[in-house]
Amino acid sequence: MGTLPREPAAGDESISGISQTDLTRLRMTLGRLGRVLRQQNDDGLSYALVSLLFAIHRMQPVAAGDLAASEGVSPPSVTRSLNRLIDIGLVLRLADPSDRRTAVISLTPAGELERQQILRSRENWLSEHLSRLGGDDVAALLAAIPALEQLCDPALE
Amino acid sequence: MGTLPREPAAGDESISGISQTDLTRLRMTLGRLGRVLRQQNDDGLSYALVSLLFAIHRMQPVAAGDLAASEGVSPPSVTRSLNRLIDIGLVLRLADPSDRRTAVISLTPAGELERQQILRSRENWLSEHLSRLGGDDVAALLAAIPALEQLCDPALE
DNA sequence: TCCGATATCTAACATGGCAAAGTAATATCC
DNA sequence: GGATATTACTTTGCCATGTTAGATATCGGA
Q1: What is the torsion angle, in degrees rounded to the nearest 10, for the CA atoms of residue A116, residue A119, residue A121 and residue A123?
Q2: Does A95 contact B at CB distance below 8 Å?
């Protein structure tokens, strides 16, 4: 690990200009990093809940279905996560008078506070590990952020 | 959508030289990509099982504990996943005569075949999405592979 | 009015993490 | 040699979070 992308061995055909080896490494690494991050609960909130909290902040007032689409998960997942956030008082679900099938989701003051707190203390795991990387590696990571974002942009589905 | 908490406009203090904004974007994106990849089941095999299959291929003959360390998960997780792979005939677990507490894990011919098949057909999701990126983005991603690998290198824990 | 479409929730299930406890083999110490 | 500790793995039980299928309520147009 930590080595440069190897030169494609003989017979490592490439698709769309990328060697199978690199594709595999990319896929494996991304999957694993996601797992590590997801298990990294900075606070009491799991990754899924934190992600949802931020999505609500960005989109509020918002319907559950839009949150599901935004997070790229199914509505039932959002429903359950929302219930958790509501239970602990971070999120508010109010009836929408204009369409009573939906509800209006928003952060409570406690939710907003929690969000800011997470934002400040969030960087623990990631920044700690980033600090162990060389400057070149960090630069490469930062340079790849837009590509990573585009990769999981649901608009590209 | 692919946007992330564009948080602190002003006063975006940096930790270890990286802005909070970038850290947040990185974390959110990596977590999400991992989720997407994980749900992307090439074949009947889940991400965790495919990952394990490849790890066995790389390390065989190998002990279960080493696989756990390599995958960065706990021994019980590996045991369960191994049992699944053994059940479907892709993996062999044999007693180690030199130390009967451990067992020697290796791929069966069917496992090796499956692995090659996955390798060939693996490129579905990732390469398809990569092909929608600009050349610069792809280059940035490839350049970031070593950094990504180092980020989740268990040796850095 | 009625009926299909829409938005959400409930229920049931699968996966895959974990920690704690159990089991068996090996190593150590007197 | 035999008691004890350590090691390696498995089993068990729990939790979080994803899914799909089906129920329910509402909306909106023919």
Answers
A1: 180
A2: no
**A97/B contact by beta carbon, under 8 A:** no
Regarding whether A97 and A124 lie in a shared domain, the answer is no
Contact A47, A84 (CB under 8 A): no
Shortest-distance nucleotide from B79 CA to C1' = D10
Bridge partners of residue B7, in order along the sequence: none
Which tokens go with A109? 């003051």
Cβ within 8 Å of B, A 98-157: 119, 122-123, 126-127, 129-133, 137-138, 140-156
CB atoms within 10 A of CB B15: 15
Does B3 score more than 50 pLDDT?
no
Please give the nucleotide, over all strands, whose C1' is closest to the CA of residue B86: D10
Q: Is A9 within a domain?
A: no
In whole angstroms, give the CA distance from residue B101 to residue B116: 31
Are residue B119 and residue B105 in the same domain, yes or no? no
Distance CA B10 to C1' C15 in A: 42
Query: Per-residue pLDDT tens for A15-32?
Result: 557 777 787 788 878 888
Domain assignment present for residue B103? The answer is yes
Tally of domains within chain A: 2
pLDDT digit string, tens, across residues A19-66 = 777 877 888 788 888 888 877 766 678 889 999 999 999 999 999 999
B54 token code pair: 């490849």
B75 domain residue, yes or no: yes
Residue B3 lies inside a defined structural domain of this protein? no
Contact yes or no for A2 and B119 at CB 8 A: no
Q: Do B35 and B53 share a domain, yes or no? A: no
Same domain, residue pair A53 and A26: no
pLDDT computed for residue B1 by the predictor = 37
Domain span including residue A27: 20-41+114-156
